[in-house]
């Protein structure tokens, strides 16, 4: 887990070892600056942009609504806040005002663990010069104090990628897709994010 120290006099948490450098080790240095800037510091990072959001076929669209996923959109105003915590990072996403929140930490075997509600998604990270890829490595569901493994034949598969973009490689191009067994695509969203102030 991430080591942290709490100073009550400052009312802030100082994260001693940022999550992504800890997960990637020497491969961290390969990443483009705009990607490293999102994950390297102990302060909140805020990114803004516009995303195209797509759902799958009829049953997948119904399931996406049931799960309260962001609705389809051609160009949704998107804000991502990455907030360091004692255990890793909290990600707060807003797609046209529709919020999606998750918490990330180091999981067993050095995998990235992302928790969304009761779901625990596990990823292997692959760093290259201009990109960071997230390869789905397992899914568990938490029921009470128990974490239950979902077999490969029944679990969702999440693929995601961050890439340096823009004339000066100052933007983060993000693409995420979730696919379900027998149903295919559940949701896919893609767009560019830039560090900065208010929503675009």
Report on this structure.
With 200 residues, the protein is mainly β. The chain has one domain (16-195): Lipocalin (Beta Barrel). It is built from three helices and 13 strands. Strands 3-4-5-6-7-8-9-11-12-13 form a ten-stranded antiparallel β-barrel. The protein has a two-stranded antiparallel ribbon with strand order 1-2. β6 (98-106) and β7 (112-116) form a beta hairpin.
Keywords:
200 residues, Lipocalin, 10-stranded antiparallel β-barrel, two-stranded antiparallel sheet, 3 helices, 11% helix, disordered N terminus
In brief:
By secondary structure, the chain is mainly beta.
Tally the beta strands.
13
Would you tell me the overall average pLDDT?
A: 87
Q: Mind telling me the C-alpha Rg?
A: 17 Å
Contiguous runs where pLDDT drops below 50 for at least 5 residues: 1-16
The CATH C-level name is Mainly Beta
In total, the number of domains comes to 1
């Amino acid at each position: 887990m991430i080591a942290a120290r709490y100073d009550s006099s400052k009312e802030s948490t100082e994260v001693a070892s940022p999550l992504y450098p800890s997960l990637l080790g020497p491969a961290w240095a390969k990443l483009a600056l705009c990607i490293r800037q999102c994950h390297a510091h102990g302060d909140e990072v805020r990114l803004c942009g516009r995303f195209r959001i797509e759902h799958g076929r009829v049953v997948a669209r119904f399931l996406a609504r049931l799960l309260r996923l962001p609705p389809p959109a051609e160009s949704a105003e998107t804000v991502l806040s990455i907030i360091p915590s004692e255990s890793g990072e909290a990600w707060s996403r807003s797609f046209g005002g529709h919020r999606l929140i998750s918490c990330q930490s180091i999981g067993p075997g050095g995998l990235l663990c992302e928790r969304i509600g009761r779901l625990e998604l596990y990823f292997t990270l692959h760093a290259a010069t201009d990109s960071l890829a997230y390869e789905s490595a397992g899914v568990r569901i938490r029921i009470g104090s128990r974490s239950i493994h979902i077999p490969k034949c029944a679990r969702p598969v999440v693929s995601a990628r961050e890439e340096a973009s823009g004339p000066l490689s100052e933007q983060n191009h993000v693409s995420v897709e979730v696919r379900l067994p027998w149903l295919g695509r559940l949701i896919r969203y893609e767009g560019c994010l830039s560090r900065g102030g208010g929503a675009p």
